[in-house]
Automatic annotation (TrEMBL):
GO BP annotations listed: L-valine catabolic process
Lineage: superkingdom: Eukaryota
Function: Hydrolyzes 3-hydroxyisobutyryl-CoA (HIBYL-CoA), a saline catabolite. Has high activity toward isobutyryl-CoA. Could be an isobutyryl-CoA dehydrogenase that functions in valine catabolism.
Amino-acid biosynthesis listed as a keyword: no
Biological pathway: Amino-acid degradation; L-valine degradation
InterPro entries, A to Z: ClpP/crotonase-like_dom_sf, ECH_dom, HIBYL-CoA-H
GO MF, one annotated term: 3-hydroxyisobutyryl-CoA hydrolase activity
Protein name, UniProt field: 3-hydroxyisobutyryl-CoA hydrolase
Domain Enoyl-CoA hydratase/isomerase: 109-256, 263-382
């Protein structure tokens, strides 16, 4: 039976019951985006002839076009809206707006992530601006659908700006790190409960939080340049921003691998075990017998990763299978704050230092071995906060009042 979202709220403003396909590269999503992208880029006047080969770029999905028209979308020429105002604003506001640009024609809006030099990595100000933009567009009855893409040639979005987090932690600015997670996870939740059709153009690099801000929306499109990964265990962190929700809903154990697509039977045969140690042992046995290069590559990646992150991630994805999006985000928020707190381990700052700052690629993990990571240590990443640390505050009562 297909998973469904029930996002019906007061006055019918939430998304109605509809089948939800969480699979990363869904063919239906690709076709739907083709229709929306076609409509967005190729509007013409009634008396304007179609260009030769016009339909060869992307196939138009007519049902999507009809559904958008029912929502009041009229495709016509009009001026573009710029994110940069003509009047003077404080420097911090100009910087915030420059990192997320806005384009709009007729009854559509597009958010453009605009930090190409940083692979469009998400900062706290970007997440806050996305929240404000999307909430205002949702309330605007003249807007029929919304889109998102990455600025620059290479990336859609490389995820959270972990180097910025690393520097903030070294400066003792933990509260600013929390603000980033709060804004980002709220936006992921807003995307997962968004009223209007949303199209994410996932062209180029899509990593970590970049997947988190695009997959929960209604439609996703990928290209032959799309590179998807959730590599957080390599920097001593965990797949977050809703990753435990969508990875856990992939077929079989595919969500644990998050690498090139192989036969499901192959993946299931190695990743069906209860513990990371058993998974590693299974891979080692088969790699030594077959000499399979994919198995050796996966083994090397696992052994390079933080042992603590591996065990936390495995439990997170497995718990996510039985939780709603808001529950997954609440749990991931607890886990993220535990990783940056350094109370249990310094793996996050050490991983970012070794792979992205000093680039010596020799992180000193703590604990250094899988067998040194206890169940109690892993469980502590998921336990609710005490009275001195508030839980993640998501607008569930507003967006899903009947839940």
């Amino acid at each position: 039976m297909a998973d469904t979202h029930n996002h019906t709220g007061a006055g019918g403003l939430r998304r109605r019951n509809m089948p939800y396909n969480p699979y990363l590269m869904a063919a239906a999503g690709l076709a739907a985006i083709g229709g929306a992208w076609y409509l967005y880029n190729n509007r013409r006047k009634p008396d304007q002839a179609a260009r030769p080969g016009h339909h060869n770029k992307l196939k138009l999905l007519l049902p999507l076009g009809r559904s958008l028209q029912r929502n009041g979308s009229v495709y016509r020429q009009s001026r573009c809206f710029s994110a940069l105002p003509s009047y003077t604003q404080p420097d911090y506001l100009q910087h915030e707006e420059a990192s997320v640009l806005v384009q709009g024609r007729a009854n559509s809006r597009m958010a453009i992530l605009n930090r190409p030099s940083a692979l469009n990595a998400i900062t706290a100000s970007m997440a806050a601006r996305l929240n404000r933009l999307y909430e205002s567009w949702e309330e605007n009855s003249t807007i029929g659908f919304v889109m998102m893409k990455g600025g620059g040639e290479r990336p859609f979005c490389s995820g959270t700006d972990v180097v910025a987090l690393y520097r903030l932690l070294n400066e003792g600015k933990t509260e600013e790190c929390k603000a980033l997670f709060q804004s980002l996870y709220k936006f992921v939740y807003v995307m997962g409960t968004y009223l209007k059709p949303h199209v994410a153009i996932m062209d180029g690099i899509v990593m970590g939080g970049g997947a988190g801000i695009s997959l929960p929306g209604m439609f996703r499109v990928v290209s032959d340049r799309t590179v998807f990964s959730t590599p957080e265990v390599q920097i001593g962190f965990h797949p977050d921003a809703g990753a435990s929700y969508y990875l856990s809903r992939l077929p079989g154990y595919l969500g644990i691998v998050a690498t090139q697509i192989l036969r499901i039977e192959t993946i299931d045969s190695f990743f069906c075990y209860d513990t990371v140690e058993e998974i590693v042992e299974s891979l080692e046995n088969q790699a030594s017998e077959s000499g399979n290069m994919w198995l050796k590559t996966v083994l090397n990646k696992i052994k390079e990763a933080s042992p603590l992150s591996l065990k936390v991630t495995l439990q997170s994805v497995r718990e996510g299978r039985f939780q709603t999006l808001d529950q997954c985000l609440t749990r991931e928020y607890r886990t993220s704050l535990r990783f940056i707190s350094k109370h249990i381990s310094n793996d996050f700052t050490e991983g970012v230092r070794a792979r992205l700052v000093d680039k010596d690629f020799a992180p000193k993990w703590g604990p250094p071995k899988l067998e040194d990571v206890t169940d109690d240590m892993v469980d502590s990443f998921f336990s609710p906060f005490g009275e001195h640390e508030p839980e993640l505050n998501l607008p569930v009562a507003v967006r899903e009042p009947d839940v």
